[in-house]
Amino acid sequence: MDMRALVTGASAGLGAEFARQLAAEGFSLVLVARDEARLRALADELAAARGTEVEVLAADLLEHDDLERVAARLADGARPVDVLVNNAGFAVAEPFHASAIEDERRMHELLSWVPLRLAHAALPGMRARRRGGILNVASLAGRLPSGTYSAAKAQLLMLSRALRAQYRRDGVVVTALLPGFVATEFHERMGVDATTVPEIGWANASAVVRDGLRALRTRRGIVVADWRYRLAAPIAVLVPDRIIAGVGLGSRLDD
């Protein structure tokens, strides 16, 4: 069966790894990110290695017209998208009282509004075809009371649960992937010193992506990625809020 996946934030990190693993599974791809040069380099890599059919859709998802172009691509019934991976994101490094409110707004839009808009565009076609998958890259931070990044990821987690409950009988699978710290460019782009996290705390991006795609295939609603975080997750939610907030753990977890 010819299957196609659209991945946001596909130029680096988890997004690029999603593209590689989906290509290995035989998917055609629509790659979305702001950096067109990096997207085209990845598209060339996948075409050369696997003969993957790749569409490059350069877009800034925080710009209305660009977001609507991506939404229109998802709604195109002539070239259906079977799997949507909502992966694009960034975090604000500064504490809430010192952050720029425009940065806060942009972060919340990208982490919560953009996935909602793209899921809204994808769902009608998936329901009509009686099949489809939406994989939302949330975060373990969404279960921890620390920072506005955690708050935005909590909203994405709840959206995932709501859509899963509402559309599972229509053949649509919605899965929330909850990573912890992942070895990507994420923290470097935030300006956060990654050496503050012990080496054992960093999960491998390929393992995180495998966990997410496996959960989508097996129709699981929520999956905590990487064994170390699956062990830690039940304990982390028992830690008092004041301690979580004091160390800033939730706001530093990667997506």
Order of helices and strands: EHEHEHEHEHEHHEHHH
Q: Could you tell me how far the N terminus lies from the C terminus, measured between alpha carbons in angstroms? A: 30 Å
Strand residues, percent: 5-15%
Mean pLDDT: 87
Write out the strand line-up for the largest beta sheet, numbering strands in chain order: 3-2-1-4-5-6-7
Spans of 5+ residues with little confidence (pLDDT < 50)?
Answer: 249-255
General form: globular
Radius of gyration: 17 Å
Helix proportion of residues, in percent?
40-55%
**What is the β-strand count?**
7
Structural class: alpha/beta
Largest sheet: 7 strands, parallel
Q: Number of DSSP helices? A: 10
Overview of this structure, please?
By secondary structure, the chain is an alpha/beta fold. A seven-stranded parallel beta sheet has the order 3-2-1-4-5-6-7, with helices on both faces. α5 links the parallel β5 and β6. α1 packs across α7. The radius of gyration is 17 Å and the shape is globular. The C terminus is likely disordered.
Jot down its keywords:
255 residues, alpha/beta
Nutshell version of this structure?
With 255 residues, this protein is of the alpha/beta class.
